[in-house]
Amino acid sequence: MSFQASTSREKVSAKARVKARESSEAHPNVDALQPLLAGAHARGMADAFELAGVAAVMIDQQGMVLHAGAPARDLFGPDLRLEYDHLVSNSAESTCVIQTLIASALSEGETPAPVLISRAGQTPFKLHARRAPGAAGNVCQLLKVLIIIEEVAPRPAGN
């Protein structure tokens, strides 16, 4: 899958419509507006992160990327990228760290600690995982986890 296709609004919207239809069939008590409101909530969060210049990646229940905002895409390269709708790195070890972070955030335990992803010749990225507010109890909300990417500032000389 190409990078741009995985970040398009149309793809997320199509996924949302299919998921909402399946959800409303499986859960007849779900209000017909709930899928639309859940999609609007996720889209609003994506827009807010983008306007604020925050590098955010939105993850669904299966650990797959729903959306990566422009600030996040600007940081992508060989050390952190999307591959087949998954956030991966250039090494198997770093990719495992990323996927473990996402899996931990999807579980119902404590919020996982941030992880560092090393980059060749540069300071590492720090990835923070946060559960999307209200997503756990909402069967219509595709967005489950936010991954916030932060560039670690270099240490001043002498420290």
Give the number of helices.
5
Strand order of the largest sheet: 2-1-7-6-5
Low-pLDDT residue spans: 1-10
> What name does the CATH topology carry?
Beta-Lactamase
Q: Helical amount among residues, as a percent range?
A: 25-40%
Order of helices and strands: HHHEEHEEHEEE
Kindly provide the radius of gyration, computed on alpha-carbon positions and rounded to a whole number of angstroms: 16 Å
Write out the CATH superfamily name: PAS domain
Q: Main sheet?
A: 5 strands, antiparallel
Question: What would CATH call the architecture?
Answer: 2-Layer Sandwich
Q: How much strand?
A: 15-25%
Straight-line N-to-C gap: 43 Å
Q: Structural class, please?
A: alpha+beta
Whole-number mean pLDDT: 79
CATH class call: Alpha Beta
User: Overall 3D geometry?
Assistant: globular
Question: What is shown here, in short?
Answer:
Helix content is 39%, strand content 23%. With 159 residues, it is of the alpha+beta class.
